[in-house]
Design brief:
The chain is α+β, with helices and mostly antiparallel strands. Helices cover 42% and strands 18% of the residues. The protein has 15 helices and eleven strands.
Length: 429
């Protein structure tokens, strides 16, 4: 059969969308175990989620360095031995800390999983936070901090969050250079004891998961309690203290171009309008064919790229807009952003444009949940945000059913350029 390459293939709508749900168990010690059995490759991914992050720390950097130092030595393994073993068995370890969770992620060949998981179990259960390694890690991170602190995009992002949330809020309080000197072994051990235990954790295992692999996980993390389960994590409520000014300039004399960050509070993910509002935001600035890109990049040539999106935090959300451009173009860009918001509030989008953005979003959803590991990311997202298991089906339904009239109503209800705070970091023009 010869393909006719002169005729484009027919575009077919997605009729139904579902992703493989984990098999959910509770291990003997009460730790939830989520098993995602997908794929034929002899590789598995192990995720340990610890509830507690930036939101819960008593001082800046505490959550991040507690998580980061797990690999720097245990009661039975030195940092060099940990690195050597993982490298020898071809494993990859990722340690990360977010707003309200810490993550320990291991990628391992199935046949070496017993060996690699044993290393991870030692890291999680018996870290010693050695002072020598901690000093090295702190010095490296201090140098990186000083480099990043001079980047205009970092300067603008931090200043915008401070303007939105206030300096007393966990999301508005950023580490300063002197905060690195306040981190010591005792500070990390205190955070570790409070949050890293079996009463505050959950496990995901994905890939080609065999009964033997499940037994290894249960053996190391599910048979008996580990850590100090008597200590309870604290999750304090904070009220944002938003600044009243709508324009903030952060000067950097030698900047070749300026960074513009704009933002305002928006819908949380739990809001009934959120999923259709996300279509509006994508149309506005969430993909290459968006209104902001078409106007400010393609027509005006002010910047190589500009984007808008929803940033999700516990119980709140932020509509954010971001770009970098030559210093003299920043004010015209702010003006054009306001014009595009006004257009969406006053003019109904065409059916063709709405169909294009919806097809983009549907295709992006399909690409995002193809593999076992991306499925793991999807269900970890559900757990860490507290959304229901029907979130993906509801997302598909919202994209397929949203109308041009609804987009107009959503824009009129939730788009207000006067609410945006604009932060510019760069050189005075």
């Amino acid at each position: 059969m010869i393909l006719d390459r002169t005729t484009a293939p027919e575009i077919r709508q997605i009729e139904h969308f579902s992703i493989v749900e984990p098999e959910r168990r509770v291990m003997r010690n009460g730790v939830p175990l989520n098993i995602i059995q997908v794929g034929d490759e002899d590789v598995v991914r192990f995720d340990l989620l610890v509830k507690g992050g930036q939101w819960n720390q008593s001082q800046p950097l505490q959550a991040m360095f507690t998580n980061r130092m797990l690999r720097e030595g245990t009661s039975s393994l030195t940092s060099a031995q940990i690195a050597e073993k993982l490298d020898y068995y071809g494993a990859w370890l990722d340690l990360s800390s977010a707003v309200n969770y810490g993550f320990i992620t291991l990628y391992s060949l199935s046949k070496y999983f017993p060996k690699t998981l044993e290393v991870v179990a030692s890291m999680v259960k018996e870290p010693i936070f050695p002072e020598k390694e901690l000093d090295v890690i702190l010095n490296v991170n201090k140098q990186q901090f000083q480099v990043n602190a001079r980047r205009v995009d970092v300067m603008a992002r931090k200043r915008l969050n401070r303007a939105l949330f206030g300096i007393q809020h966990p999301l508005g309080r950023y580490a300063e250079l002197e905060d690195y000197d306040r981190i010591d072994r005792e500070v990390l051990q205190k955070y570790y004891r409070t949050y890293y235990h079996s009463g505050n954790s959950s496990v995901y295992i994905s890939g080609k998961v065999t009964p033997a692999i499940i037994r290894y996980v249960e053996q190391h993390f599910g048979e008996s309690e580990w850590g100090d389960t008597s200590l309870k994590a604290s999750f304090k409520e904070y009220t944002p203290q938003t600044e009243t000014g709508k324009y903030i300039f952060v000067e950097k004399e030698d900047a070749l171009q300026s960074s513009l960050k704009m933002g305002c509070f928006s819908l949380p993910q739990q809001h009934p309008d959120y999923l259709k509002f996300r279509v509006l935001v994508t149309l506005f600035g969430g993909y290459f064919g968006s209104r902001l890109m078409s106007n400010i990049r393609e027509e005006k040539g002010y910047t190589y790229g500009i984007c808008a999106g929803l940033v999700n935090y516990p119980k709140t959300g932020v509509l954010g807009i971001s770009t970098e451009a030559a210093n003299e173009y920043i004010q015209p860009i702010i003006t054009e952003i306001g014009k595009e918001m006004d257009r969406l509030c006053s003019e109904k989008v065409s059916e063709q444009e709405l169909e294009m953005v919806c097809n983009y979003m549907l295709g992006d959803m399909c690409r995002s949940y193809e593999s076992a590991f991306s499925l793991s990311d999807a269900w970890i997202f559900i757990e860490t945000t507290g959304l229901g298991t029907d979130f993906f089906e509801r997302s598909l339904e919202a994209i397929r059913e949203v109308t041009a009239n609804e987009i107009l109503t959503l824009a009129q209800t939730y788009f207000c350029k006067e609410n945006l705070i604009a932060v510019v970091a760069g050189k005075k023009v």
